[in-house]
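re the bet — no i am not wrong, look at it urself. input seq straight from the record:
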Amino acid sequence: MNWKFLCLICAFLPISSAVGQALDFNVGFEDFLAAHNSVKGFDYEAVTSEELTALNDLLAQLDNIDFVAESTSIPLKINVYNFLVIREILANYPIASVAEINDFFGKKLKVGTGKLSLDELEKNIIYTGKNPYLHFLLNCGAKGCPRLQFISPEQKTEGYIKAALEDKHLIEAAEKKTFLSQIFFWNMEEFGDEKKIIAELNRISDKKILSRNPISYMEYDWLLNSRTVGSNQTFYPTKLYSKGGGELKIFNNYYAQNESGFRSNFFSSFFQVLLGTNKNLNFGIDLKVRSVTNGNVSMFSALNFQNKPFHSVDGTESFARVGISGVGPRIKYQPFKSKNNINVLHTLYFVPMESAQGNNLYGYSDYNYFQIFNQLFYEKEFSVKRRLFIDFGILIENIKLTSTQADHFMPIQVPVTAIYSYFPDTKMTLYALASFGQRLDIVYPSDAASYTNYTVYGQLGGGFKYYLTDYLEVELLYTNFIDTTPGRRANTFNLGLRFFRF
C-alpha cells in the first residue's frame, strides 16, 4: 500500500468534512433568512423551535473549525455571527432592544473549537478580513445596524457592502452636509480619518459625497430590528412622517372647574391631521369643537352638547354653548437636521364661532380672535423602556389686528410640560406628566391705559397608551390643576385615538 497516498487521504478527510459542514450551515441559514427576513425587519415571532434547533445542530457540527484562524471563510464567520445574534435575541424574546440583554456583546458563546463573544468575533472578522467595511455586513439586532443579509461564500463581500451602504440610516449625502452612522465614529481607528472615509465611500458606493461638506454622525437607533415590534417603540413625538405617511388624531379634553360651588366645564375635541411631505417637514390641519356649561350645572353637563342661553338655576346665572371654536393649519419641522429628537410645531387657529367670548345670550366659550401656538419638542431616551419628553410652548391668544373702542385683552402663556414614559411591553405605555405655566394678560381697556396681569399655574397627572392594532393607539390621561386662586379646584379627563401610517 502507498502510505503517502493514505496519509494524504486521511489529512484531506477532516478538511473535506469541514467544508461540507460549513456548506450545510450556510444553506440552512440562507433558507432561514429567506423565511423570516425582509426589508421591514426580522420576524422573530414566526421562528419555530424546530427551525432554531435545526440551525443549532448545524452550528454544532462546526466544532472542528477554528473561528479565530485567518484561513476560516469570512462569509461563514459573518453568517455565524448574524445567526448568534438572532439566537440570543430569541432566547430572551420578547424584548424591545438588545440593550435589555445583560452583557449581550460580551457573553462567551460556543463557536467552533472555542468560545468567543460577539465583540471578539466581530473584531476577528475585521482583522482577518483586512477590511473595516465588513462591519456593514454584521447585524447587531438593532434598527440602526446594517441590514441583515445572507453572505454567500461564492460571491465577493464588496457587493454586499455596497448594497448595505445604500441604506439612509448608514449614509446620507445631503447637499451641504454628510450624515454617517455612528459605526464610523466608533471604529475611527479602523476606518481612518474622515477624509479617508469619504474617499473610500465615493469609491465603493453609488452615493457621491462632497469632500468639502462637514460630517455629522446620526443618532443610533437601538430598537429591535423586528418587523413586529410595537409601534409605541418606533414612534417618537419628535419624529416626522416621511412622504406618504401621516396621522389622524382625535383628542378629547374635559376640563372641570369648581370655584366655591360655581362650575365651569369645557369639553374640547381636537381633530388633527398631519401629513408627511419629506423627512424634515410635515403639515396638516386642526379643528377644535368646544362644548361649554357654566353656572349651577353638573360636573359632566358639557357632554350634553347643548345651546342654552343665559338662564337662572336656583338663583345662579347659567348657560350652555357648543360650536366650532377653532380651525387652522399646522406645520411641524425639524430645525436641526442632525437632531431628530428636536422638532417645532406651529398651529394657527381662526375662530369661526360668532362672539366666542360671549354676548348678551351666552358667556365665554373661547377667544374671539385668532391664536398662535408655538411648541418646541425635545425627547431624551434613557433606555429602550424609559423616555423623557419635554414640550416648551409659547401660546399667543386673542390676537386682534385692528384697533377698536371695545375692551380687549391678549393672553400670552409659556407652559413647560415634562412627560416621563415607561414601556412595560411593546404595546403599552405608562407615563407621568408635570406641567408649569406662566400667563401674562395684556389688557386694553376702552377708557384707560393698558395694563398687565401675571399668574402661574401647574398640573400633575398620569396617563396610559395602548396599541389596539399596529396602527391604532388609544390614550387615557387624568390631570389635576394646581391653581393659586382661593377656593378653585380643577382637573381634566382625556381620551385620545391616533391612527397613523409611516
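see?? The two ends are 72 Å apart (CA to CA). told u. also The chain has two domains: 14-217, 231-501. so pay up
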